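Budget justification note: compute hours in this period were largely spent on complex prediction jobs such as the one shown. Inputs:
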Amino acid sequence: MKKNLIASAVAATLLAAPFAASAGEAELLARIDKMAAEQEQLKAELKASLQKTAVIEQKQQELASAAAPAIAAATTPAPSAAIAASGPTTIIGGYGEINYNRPSKNASAAQTDVRRAVIGIEHRFDDKTKLVSEFEWEHAIASATDSGESAIEQLYVERQFGNGLRGKAGLFLIPAGLLNTNHEPTAYYGVERNFVETAIIPSTWREAGVGLSGDTDSGLAWDAGITTGFDLGKWDAASSDGRESPLGAIHQEGQLAKSRDLSVHGALNWRGVPGLLLGGSLFSGKVGHKTEGYTANDARVTMYDLHARYTPGLWDLAGVYARGQISNTAALNLTLVGNPTPVPKAFAGWYLQAAYQAYKADDYVLSPFVRYEQYNTAKSYEALPQGLGVAPQADEKVTTVGANLKVGEGVVLKADYQKFKEDKTRDRLNLGVGFSY
Amino acid sequence: MRYRLCLPLAAGLACLPAYAVQYLSVEQVQKLAYPDATAYRAQDVALSLAQMQQVEKLAGLPARSVNWRVFGAYNGDKLLGYLVLDDVIGKFELISYAVALNPDASIRQVEILAYRESHGSEIRLPAWRRQFAGKSASTGGLTLGGGIANISGATLSASHLTDGVRRIAAIAQLVLKP
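Corresponding output:
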């Protein structure tokens, strides 16, 4: 290394020689002095960076060797030493997915999208307090002239209390369904997230507020919280957003969220039998926020779900039922007559999914899956005078068949085909790559 | 690859203690695993290269470490079994656990000493941990999805802990079993 530096210094000097000669010997000497000084500086920098590398390598080795905590030669077992294994204080994680969709009846609408890229940072302040954050970009570019989005997906502090309870405050995920709190592409089957947990449960669904969680030895885990809720004032009856996802159209996502009316939620999950998860959740809150002159100040969103997942052996079976209601919307809908998308009274959906780990070799795991789902974002409307109402939608039924190929723990390649019963123009082939670390 | 940034590392300082729910101390695990034990003797294991290769073959996993923290549990002079202490990484952070083994190298029980992440602490559930009891490297049934049921929402923790236990079962089979 040192030799290389000297060689290049000499070469540089030689190259510079013709100019130096014409410029005089004194100048040449000055140049050599300058180069020598630069070389000294480079040497010092190299030494410093080598030292830094050594420290990092040493730390990495410590971590890699599972950081076997120094349990002082086992003669004096020091439990506190075992527990206080030095761990990281700040962890960077992330996930992302890049998807390709090709409608089978309209190939010209085929699209490729950097669906999302997320950077997560967790920071531990002390042994009981930490910050969890997730920063997301959707659709590759977010600017005034692009359709991408940049969002804070999670930003909360969590504190563990002595009695096993955990409290959190900030912007956090609502524990509804199976996917919302577990939404990394490596965690679910299929290129796209299922419809029930995007159109009915508006994942990734987060609210700002406070929450408390706990669990018991019998396998029961519970969550409860008070958070911001939805803002019905955002409903745009002229657009189709509300038809794609009623709650997705009025969520506030922690952005200057109207908070006159707060919402409450609760969830129970039971894992008393290995491989089995049974659970449900409820979320409810008013959505009018006592807005002056607003016709739906008594409107309330109530969303509940029941979910189950069973993983016997190589099988992975899952099912979710979710139903949402928006009450007291008749007067509001009367003002929206003539628009294509009034506020629905009820929206609901369910799916059943079966996956099987068919092939495993080295780092590759291939799991074919099939999912059948049925959902309706406008199952019913509150009664309007004859001739003014909009007819409820028919249930959409989607069958998805495909496979996930996991490469190691962090990478997944996906392919599937989706067949729609109602709107057959939506039939499509999907390909995707996702990662999570 | 996971990036672990240890902020104090940059300053050359030791890291802060881990975010941990400490469920059990080593003494508590010792009492829990062998209530009849009158003495525990440190019997730490240092694997030879050949042994590490055998462990890898038997467990289907790299042996990872040469040195293993092992206690022999005794009632008087009678060997009741062994207790092996280890840590595996869940998603980001270490799970501290102990495997109690019978003298014939079959698993007696698995206990979690500390779990540090927000999600996945379901591996502590007694019903889930009971799946390991009675199994050994020779009986098999110590892989996730092959004898040990997965925990949805805690796949990484469940999978890494299962791998850790399988590795210890292999070490016990090769080194501890008389």
